[in-house]
Amino acid sequence: MKTFTSLCAGLLGIAAGLAHAGDGSDSYDLVARGRYLAELGDCTACHTLPGEAPFAGGVRIETPFGDVLGANITPDPDTGIGRWSFEDFQNTMSRGHARGGKRLYAAMPYTAYTKVTREDNRAIWAYLNSLEPVHRKVDTNQLPFPFNLRTSLIAWNWLAFEEGEYQPDPGRSAEWNRGAYLVQGLGHCGSCHSPKNLIGGDKDGEFLTGSPLQGWMAPDITGNRHTGLGRWSEAEIVRYLKTGANRFDMASGPMAEAVEHSTQHWKDPDLAAVATYLKSLGDPEQPAPEPLAKDDERLHTGALIYEDQCSACHTPNGEGIPNLFPKLADAPLVNSRDATSLIRVVLAGSRAVGTDAAPTAPAMPSFAWNMTDEYVADVLTFVRNSWGNAAEPVTAEEVKAVREEMEP
């Protein structure tokens, strides 16, 4: 009986979605396109609790000012968006104004979604209205005073938000423009990868150059050869987004979730367009800093630890094993200005996300149990200044801070 009830509810949901979308033989195609667009936007990440009904909300989202909860965006009339019109939804996506004019916090990335076309929003709207309604009341605003006062968003939007759909660059190819549209808009890559100013807005001129995020470092994903993706081929970018791993890196933390819920499902032409666009950003010829002097004692100690603990998988020369153990030599993530993610992976270990294209995920064990803060700092300092790498040394104090943050 439960299966029959669920089937009926699903059919009624589809009918409701088609009714919202309007009449026409292409309505089913519109819902299907909306589903794909919702995957491009990774709506699941903020609106679906693990093991719970899709898009029923309740996901806790950490911000520098406190936590907010992802809203219920199923078509439930009382706790979801069932009473919304398409114009209500359009205003939410393009202006950050929910039904009734309530201003949203930028944890809902309307600062990026404003670039999404009205046509794409209509398809997403049709898809959301095809879902089974779920009655779940979510109090999204968990912020402490005074950040819980939405009137402050008037000033925030004036300072940090520019409304408007993406406008194609006529001097660029269709593929480049598609990549720009996805990265700047539905993909909202800047929400994690762009440095933030004191009020939480993106820093001018530093788009996608890396930013701290929930105890990780979202890396530089511009075409910079030293800290960005300049050394990655476009095919390697596509492979990483499709499978969660390539010869340079395997997705961890929030990025693993993004691969699992979103990018592994993107169509190959869209992934290729994103790769084309990202490779065009930044300064690919930006000079690298000088590595530490070879007689630095930290490098000597770190080399011994690396030989004992790391070389079996990552190989003695840091070349790794393609698509299994990441390459550490000339690796942008290793050269990041912030070593937080590296420290976290050494302490906690890591497992690449299993995807449809690569279901068997490679893994790295935790070394927190047998390596002191000093040893972790020394081995990472060695790695960050060997085989073509050059980056600031890691300190024991930095490792201690990450270790304490990870402790329950």
TrEMBL record:
Gene3D superfamilies: Cytochrome c-like domain. It comes from Stutzerimonas marianensis. Residues 29-132, 174-282, 297-387 form the Cytochrome c domain. Residues 1-21 form the signal peptide. Pfam families: Cytochrom_C. This is Cytochrome c. It is found in: Cell membrane. One of its GO terms (cellular component) is plasma membrane. Heme c 1 binds at C43, C46, H47. InterPro entries: Cyt_c-like_dom, Cyt_c-like_dom_sf, Cytochrome_c-type_DH, Membr-bd_ADH_cyt_c. GO terms for molecular function: electron transfer activity; heme binding; iron ion binding; oxidoreductase activity, acting on CH-OH group of donors. Heme c 3 binds at C310, C313, H314.
